[in-house]
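Usage example:
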Amino acid sequence: MRSPIVRLLTCGSVDDGKSTLIGRLLVETDSIPYDTVDAARQVRRAGSTIPAGEIDFSLLTDGLEAEREQGITIDVAYRSMSLLDGRRLIISDAPGHEQYTRNMVVAASRADIAIVLVDAIKGVRIQTRRHLTICSLMGIHRVLIAINKLDAVGYKESIYTQIKHEIEEVLPQLELTNVDFIPLSALIGDNVVERTPSLPWYQGSTLLQAIESWQPDEDRVESARMRVQSVLRADGFRGVSGTVHLGGFAQGDEVKVYPGNKIATISHILSDMREQKTAARSDAVTLVLEPEVDITRGDLIAASAADIHLSDRFSAHLVWLNEDALIHSRSYLLISGPTQTPVIVTKILHKIDVNSGEQISANTLLMNEIGLVEIATNQPLPLLPYKQSREFGNFILIDRLNFQTVGAGMIRHSLRRGENITYQAYEIDKSVRESAKNQSAKVIWLTGLPGSGKSTIANLLEKRLQALGMHAYVLDGDNLRMGLNVDLGFTPQDRAENVRRVSEVAKLMVDAGLIVITALVSPFEVDRQRARSLFDDGDFIEVFVDTPVDICLARDPKGLYKKAAQGQIPNLTGIGQGYEKPVKPEIVLDGTADIDRNTSLILKEII
Amino acid sequence: MPMRVDGKILRALEAESIEILRETAATFRKPVMMYSIGKDSSVLLHLTKKAFYPAPVPFQLLHVDTTWKFKEMITFRDKVVADNALTLIVHTNQEGADSGVNPFTSGISEYTRIMKTVALRQALDQYGVDAAIGGSRRDEEKSRAKERIFSLREEGHRWNPRNQRPELWRSYNTRLAPAQTIRVFPLSDWSESDVWRYIAAENIEVNPLYFAQTRPVIKRGGQLIMVDDERYPLQQGEKPEMMRVRFRTLGCYPLTAAVESDATTIAEIVEEVLAVKLSERATRLIDGALEDSMEKKKSEGYF
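Running the assembly step on the lines above writes:
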């Protein structure tokens, strides 16, 4: 089914006359209530030169007080109008000078068509290239380049032609094909909705005609896919609910449920509060499967004949949306539709200069930057390349501490097939190894400032455990940096990777039945939480060695604080970098108290 | 031909709204559905029944009662709750009511703040609500045009338009930090006429106040106000006049203006909505009070 809703993105700034263009489009298609239009005849911005009684079109679209004061729109707004053939047009408007990329990416995420405004007075500018790059990246199907303010340049064809040629030169690089150029004046109303005698040399369509003539590609024949939003239960009833985002299902179809490759048959399809024979693309349905296979939110239901590959490694374009920069090796939460799983950005291949299209090497992404990255997900996912499916190819990243949306990603391709690496279960497992050693394996995670006393405590704790006939091992941060972690420095990124490696090693040792003691500054809560997430409940004992910084400074067993004071160590925790105190540690030790007593406090937790 | 496309638009809007409602039920601990008794609430409830059929509606309903609602609203509310076997929470800001706050002498904005905004915050806190589903649409008002579908509220239920999460595709971030809550707007992309056409197509029961009938009204400042009970303070010599009127939106009766109309069926209402071309909130006495008033109210926690 062709979508009856068309989504349009408008790119450009207030200076390009974008608000005026949208305002005119809405007014001339009779899409705005009369009282709202009347208000736009009366209210005036400070410094406005539009005579009272005429419509200030830009007022129709600038919604919020704050932006009206500044004379700029600051966020994404959505407005609707009807097209002549009855389809609905939803316009997403992403203005603003700062945060431009972020807002535009949000507005573009669901857009079918984009209008890119070019000011005929100023010609092609750096932002034009930026708009086109983002349109290409976000999978926009059709781009209309509106060359505006032609009234101000005497409606000269030569100006239109020059701008057109300049843009046409960069289009092949951007992989944009379905592009048209429309000369117009939003202020006068030429060629927006109405044709104009002022542009006799232009025979093409008006802006509205160009929008209306767009039709989505006929659906390719795709095998059916639906992700499970929830399992629905009622008296004697069990169904799975979700939206069909690819292909379609019919009653009696054999399907496979992933992960797990479980085979079932669709015995009933429910929607509209009744039984249906089929479920088409975009339908929100509930399926009843026979037999009742194990299934949860986020699982994929697909036609059983389909060639489905799950993967836990992907390359993707990532747009960074947050003030806190991306830290590779740090764990974020990935959300794609109903799918949620922890994810690590393992590699930043390069970032893309949106103004020039150039690839620049990078080890982080700042807000509004776009990069090509590799990600590793905690579990294999059925994601598809974004070019193939927007629904199955998109994801957002969430900060695991404050839950802000920090990144938006578009899958390029999977890097390996998850099913090729299956977890091999051995008969001798952790519990067997634990009972052979007559102990309960766990990790004692010591965290605190340099000089707080972690290594000293770890040393004494291991000796006491040894004396008790127990099997323990210390993973010392500094010692590991001479071998396993020799390639890592002390930036937040490297610290995250350091903690990740140590926690993975500790996990193996705990699996081997050992009591593992780690002595690492591990200053960031999010990294420690990720380490914790690797272990079973109760196996991760976080011990905060709480020693005031002035005492650590006075102790300075490794001379680090002295070097930091001389400017030789810029990233020393407590001096150049902050230390985040644990939020919910199992044990807090007073680092100035007696060391025997402190060690006993930990021992009590273990035995 | 337009009717055929029209039906398709409603199906598409319906499917997206259902997806949002399911997402809300699946990811929040204590979601409630704001039930304001109006047409949007009727549509929301209908969509919810569809989303979870054959299971029961998984949300409790919450009605913030200012004690100044039309009598017919309360009757209708109780009937809907009984007919559909729903659970309803009714909350009134009792302190406010006891201290005599009313729409006449307290001033409209102070009355709204205490009896609606504060009352809503009280109810959300009292019942530990982490997600409140509302029927607001982006076409209602300019500041609503920027609303997310999952709209974050900071501590104290404050809406900060500068600190909203970017919302991309249909991958919704429903995670909350402590003290944060979410407002969910499944009807964001619907228009007023979509709502009415859907009501017609699905045969959804709506409040009789939406249909033209002879009602006792007085004229105040160019607006028609229905005198719904004896609490309405009439001025010297003022006498309610019987007029054939209906309501475009429902709220507190002294603050909700009627429009003269002969529309007695949903088809006639749809025709009227398409012809009138005034924004529907024009009949709400509060919004016109000052420019941007909706944004101010929302930042204090109003819906």
